[in-house]
UniProtKB/TrEMBL annotation:
Location(s) in or outside the cell: Cell membrane
Alphabetic keyword roster: Cell membrane, Membrane, Transmembrane, Transmembrane helix
Protein name as it appears in the record: Phosphatidylglycerol lysyltransferase C-terminal domain-containing protein
Lineage: superkingdom: Bacteria
Residues annotated as domain Phosphatidylglycerol lysyltransferase C-terminal: 19-303
Species: Chondromyces crocatus
Organism taxonomic ancestry: Bacteria, Pseudomonadati, Myxococcota, Polyangia, Polyangiales
Transmembrane regions listed in the UniProt entry: 341-361, 373-390, 397-418, 430-451
Length: 456
């Protein structure tokens, strides 16, 4: 991506960067210069960064505008979206904006905040475990140093190559497909102002912290924290400690690690979504990690939208913005990447399938009753194995089940070709045979992929 200073001075991104430096108060405001955003301007003194999902304009935080103009800009943006046949909403807004505008504000989580000047007095001194993590990392020989953000983002430099490998390992280790909007990994924006720290062990890169300024708040957003899988305990805490001390020396008054999604006082249906989605995203773990750094406060983060808009539909608009390519595509990519979800889904689907095989209506699809009951017994054993893996993943059991399902796929195909195809009559039979053949092949592929992902 080209940096803002390399673009024409009248380009939307350069204009947005200028307004960001004047009015960027939301913790997420520095991220509006990353890839994928469009910019809507209300005159020369206000801007909204947004993503067009096809059904809505999803804004990243509050408008970049003065206090006096913010309400009018909000109303104008909503009207402009409606003129294009789009809904409008503002994701990751804070209490200040929620109190200024006549919009519904639905809490979507909370973010931890620190006063860097009180980091040592309020955070370190109140947490023996945090101090111990820092001690361990230093004792192991982990060292933190500041590096040029330009070098970090340049794949032609040794450091840039190391960071790219670290980022690749981090992305590959996540169960969810890569997301966009406010959670993409982009180290190229604001190169002059960005703070980049690396943690090294014997000269090898084991961790990275990247922070960007929240201009109108005299503060910082720590937007990226990457850790090598082999990094000693405390390496990430050491990076945060170093960053907080730098913020303090610079006279900064605010620091945050950003949103902990679906945490805090969220609605019952969002709590249900958190529970259902825990196999894909470690909501509790992320909140717990940020909490152990002893924040000085937790502040709510909202999704703000017009009162006449449906809250569920608006939430789906936000999910589409993060999915960057459609929810169906994102879901399929995530299914391939998430071993736990694959195993759980296969176990649950195998139960009704086995019941169907045991019913009298399945008799015509098997050469003999013995063959039919052998398949039923086989599926029961596979289901038991899958439910066992759901409780605790064991590679040896997963390999055994994957091998058995692969054999199932081969035998099912052979039975379909040698027995079923010649006796099929009508679309129903063709559909049943197709599903019976395709299901074990797909299950085998997903299981082998799940085993590969589980090693990461």
């Amino acid at each position: 991506m080209a940096h803002a200073h390399e673009e024409p001075p009248d380009s939307p991104r350069v204009r947005a960067a200028s307004l960001l430096r004047r009015h960027g108060w939301n913790a997420t405001s520095p991220q509006v210069l990353e890839g994928g955003f469009s910019y809507w301007f209300d005159g020369d003194d206000a801007c909204v960064a947004y993503v067009d999902t096809g059904g809505a304009w999803v804004a990243a935080g509050a408008p970049l505008a003065s206090t006096e103009r913010r309400l009018a800009v909000t109303e104008h943006f909503i009207a402009a979206a409606r003129a294009q046949g789009r809904r409008a909403c503002f994701f990751a807004t804070e209490t200040r904006f929620a109190g200024e505008v006549p919009l519904v504000s639905l809490q979507m989580g909370e973010q931890p905040v620190w006063d860097p000047a009180a980091w040592e007095a309020k955070s370190l001194r109140s947490s023996r475990s945090l101090r111990e993590q820092l001690r361990r990392a230093r004792a192991k020989g982990v060292r933190v140093r500041q590096v040029s953000s330009t070098e970090v983002a340049d794949p032609a430099t040794p450091l840039g190559q190391g960071v790219a490998a670290l980022a690749s390992q981090w992305l590959e280790g996540r169960d969810m497909a890569p997301m966009g909007f406010l959670v993409q990994l982009d180290l190229s924006t604001l190169p002059e102002e960005r703070l980049c720290l690396v943690a090294e062990l014997d000269g090898a890169l084991v961790g990275l912290l990247a922070a960007v300024p929240v201009y109108a708040r005299n503060g910082w957003l720590i937007e990226d924290l990457l850790r090598n899988s082999g990094a000693p305990n405390g390496a990430i805490e050491l990076l945060v400690d170093d960053a907080m001390r730098r913020f303090c020396r610079a006279g900064s008054e605010f620091a945050t690690l950003g949103l902990a999604p679906l945490s805090g006082d969220v609605s019952p249906w969002l709590r249900a979504a958190r529970k259902l989605g825990s196999g894909l995203y470690d909501f509790h773990g992320l909140h717990a990690f940020k909490a152990k750094l002893r924040p000085h406060a937790w502040v709510p983060i909202f999704l703000s939208f017009p009162q006449q808009q449906n809250s569920l539909l608006t939430t789906l608009d936000v999910l589409r913005a993060f999915a960057q390519g459609g929810l169906v595509r994102f879901g399929l990519l995530t299914l391939i990447r998430a071993p736990g979800i694959v195993i759980r889904l296969m176990a649950l689907l195998l139960v009704p399938w086995t019941v169907l095989l045991a019913l009298p209506l399945a008799r015509p699809y098997f050469p003999t009753p013995g063959v039919r009951w052998a398949w039923v017994a086989f599926d029961v054993m596979v289901a038991i194995g899958l439910f066992s893996l759901m409780r605790r993943f064991r590679r040896s059991l997963a390999l055994l089940i994957a091998s058995a399902v692969t054999g199932d796929a081969v035998l099912t195909l052979a039975q379909a070709l040698l027995w079923n195809m010649g006796r099929a009559s009508g679309m129903v039979d063709a559909l049943v045979i197709t599903v019976a053949v395709a299901a074990p092949w797909l299950a085998a592929l997903l299981l082998w992929q799940a085993i590969r992902r589980a090693r990461l």
